[in-house]
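Q: Could you write out the predicted structure for this multi-component system? I'm mainly interested in how the pieces pack against one another.
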Amino acid sequence: SAVISQKPSRDICQRGTSLTIQCQVDSQVTMMFWYRQQPGQSLTLIATANQGSEATYESGFVIDKFPISRPNLTFSTLTVSNMSPEDSSIYLCSVALDNRVNTEAFFGQGTRLTVV
Amino acid sequence: AQSVTQPDIHITVSEGASLELRCNYSYGATPYLFWYVQSPGQGLQLLLKYFSGDTLVQGIKGFEAEFKRSQSSFNLRKPSVHWSDAAEYFCAVGAGNQGGKLIFGQGTELSVKP
């Protein structure tokens, strides 16, 4: 299994500013992902964080708005840039220990972001 | 494209009653299916998963799910609900050929009456 620590757990931010969310895993993992959960909604995949290269973004998400870093196999950051109230969501980091299609995904407890 | 539908947004059951949460998927090949639970303020916890073999899958906390290919369904069941089961439940399907990448249903919020 994997234990995931996300920081901060919550934040209230002013519109137009940026927030960087950190995801730390207690072991080396192959796959890391970032999801968004808007209020009352399901989880939507933002991107796959690739170690040592640019993240792979899902349709509707762009690097300028959600820059992602992954410098090693245990750590990643997601930045929410130029925030607006519509960015108020829970952002979750997820990891998988390997790339097998049937592998389990583990989740952090999320970062609850409120933009005012 | 893969998709997951959870038809019930909110379900209320009495403590001790049985529970069934519905999940329908759309996927061209053999799906990899998961049920996760999200308690208030918590991350997601895996309840159970189906990859192949026996279509009735046992999970944690007394949950089970049955894969029915003919109905494209993977419904979650529990014979007797406890108050602590109140939470949000998400059905998910593995997305493509990349491990850990999931497509989630809309979620079903479960309330438990005393």
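A: Regarding packing and overall arrangement: The interface with chain B takes residues 4, 30-31, 33, 41-45, 48, 92, 94-96, 98-110 of chain A (CB under 8 Å).
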